[in-house]
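Protocol step 4 of 5: obtain the predicted structure for the target chain.
Materials: sequence only (see below). No template structures provided, no constraints applied. The aim of this step is simply to have a reference model before the mutagenesis design in step 5. Sequence pasted as it appears in the construct record:
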Amino acid sequence: MDQPDGLNPVDLEDDRLHEECGVFGIFGHPDAAAITALGLHALQHRGQEAAGIVTFDGKRFHSERRMGLVGDTFSRQEVIAKLPGNAAIGHNRYSTTGETILRNVQPLFCELDGGGFAAAHNGNLTNGLTLRKQLVRDGAIMQSTSDSEVILHLVARSQRNRFIDRFIDGLRQLEGAYSWVALTNKKLIGARDPFGIRPLVIGELDGHPILASETCALDIINARYVRDVENGEVVVFDETGVHSHRPFPLVQPRPCIFEYVYFSRPDSIVGGRAVYDVRKTMGAELAREAPVTADVIVPVPDSGVPAAIGFSQQSGIPYELGIIRNHYVGRTFIEPTQQIRQLGVRLKHSANRAVVAGKRIVLIDDSIVRGTTSTKIVQMMRDAGATEVHFRIASPPIRHPDFYGIDTPEQDKLLAATHTIEEMRRFIGADSLAFLSVDGLYRAMGHERRNPERPQFTDHCFTGDYPTPLTDQSKREHAPRQLSLLAEAS
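Step 4 output (structure tokens):
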């Protein structure tokens, strides 16, 4: 429905890939809970369903887990006051396994024979369901439906003496992608899966160590970036200092390339690369690979903005904000009918008619998933008077589902898995459509091209090359062919 000023509101969030989760931890700081809340606020883009913080005050653990955004739950002093202590871990949740209910909100906590143990997880375990079923058969009592809970049981059942050895025993049984932050009555622990699929960094604030999913969580508290936790590394902070363990066979790291395409905040540094610069370079590569004659470059906000700037700079075509996002529209309840949704109740994005009308425009976005959103955007531009609408995507076509913590649809729901590029163009109604090539994506990452024998990144959504076993999916007989470099190395 057109508004009186001609703006056509569209909700662009209904066809997005949703982030995994965000984790944060700090050890030895008197304001541990408040600092953790700030860190989680910076990581809010990684999960908006719920948040939780666990602290230790030297005698007892304290836990607050709330549904909703960090700013709506942990900004109140009375909540922080319930979390005394100088050590804390926190978690932002977007569910990829398990229902959206309070008992699934992390950090998860349990009492072991040696004391309390809290853990928070970013990623997804590809054998989590298999482990869970085996644990339940063996008598385990599960308190959540999250795959993350298995680590509590695996640690509890280990026969090793030292806690860190018990924790590593648990990690050895996990498959898939994970970054863990864990807290005991003496230690802050971080762990990254053998391929380093999910990110985890080490920082320092006033001499106190920090673990976080991204560097933007360090920036908000003016902490110093120290280094990334390396792939397959378990790092332990206690009163004696920092201790690094490397319990896995050494393999080439393969961080998730979607952290650069979409998930990480543009101001973060991931794997030594500035995400904003990488996305601009993706746009420049796209302009070289798929040039187009047009009057204006229009980003799909907000994720398409850096790539659109790069495309504009490379092509010489002016960059304009042809789509305006209303940042003051909060989360809403699900509307009861499709008809009401189409009336534009959720006024998140609108066409800027003054920029679009009478122009040949190039829309720049980071990805196409189901294609329903892209169809709306193209029509919105035409309704605003665009004479031509060309679509350019700053990543390759997504043809394969994710099992590492990204909420992707089943493969047959991915538009690129069932349609050719020309069929996709007709489906979304654009005058032309082009994607960045896989090699172009790698060039933007600083590599000459993708090495098919030893891929430098986890890029399975584009290539179908999964670096780990997909045990749960294999048992469901839905798993694509996979490559297990870890199995080969061991």
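Step 4 remarks: Confidence is low (pLDDT under 50) at residues 1-8, 331-346, 478-490. The CA atoms of residues 294 and 360 lie 5 Å apart.
Proceed to step 5.
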